[in-house]
Structures are given as C-alpha cells and as structure tokens.
Amino acid sequence: MEVEIFKTNVQEEADKNHVMTVIQTQFPGYKINFDLEDCDKILRVEGDELQPENIVEYVNHLGYVCVPLE
C-alpha cells in the first residue's frame, strides 16, 4: 500500500466531493480523503501501484491546483 500527499487549492465541500468522485471513478481501488482545514488543502490518496502524475492530471483537468508534497 502506497500513500501520496498533494497540496491543492480546493476550498469548498462541494468541490472536494466532486474531485473525490472523479478520482474514485477513475481509480476505484484508491482510498481518498481531503483535509480542507490544513493550509495546504491536503489531498491524501492510498492504494496499490499509485500513479501520482495521473491524479495530478485529473485534478488539474477539473480546474484545481494539485501538486505532490515531498
């Protein structure tokens, strides 16, 4: 099981739910959650054989910033 953490600019609960739905549709085996309380609006993704570049691409395509955190 791998874990990837991303910084985003997702602000609203509705936006968070939309992004989570899209990611879960594309990657049904991933466990996804947001921490909108954090200053970096953290997106955390867990799964086997994660492809962080694909997650970034999907979130960016939805119009949000998504950057992997080191």
Low-confidence segments, given as residue ranges, are none
What is CATH's topology name? Alpha-Beta Plaits
Output the helix-strand order. Answer: EHEEHE
State the helicity in percent bands. 25-40%
Structure description:
By secondary structure, the protein is of the alpha+beta class. The protein has a single domain, classed as Alpha-Beta Plaits, CATH 3.30.70.100. Helix content is 34%, strand content 30%. It has helices at 13-26, 52-61, and strands at 2-8, 31-35, 42-47, 66-68. A 4-stranded antiparallel β-sheet has the order 2-3-1-4, covered by helices on one side. A hairpin with a 6-residue loop joins strand 2 and strand 3. It is globular and about 30 Å long. It comes from Flavobacterium chungangense. This is HMA domain-containing protein.
Produce the secondary structure layout.
Elements lengths: L1 E7 L4 H14 L4 E5 L6 E6 L4 H10 L4 E3 L2
Antiparallel strand pairs: 1-3, 1-4, 2-3
Give short descriptive properties of this protein.
Alpha-Beta Plaits; 4 strands; globular; HMA domain-containing protein
Q: TL;DR of this structure?
A:
The protein is of the alpha+beta class and 70 residues long.
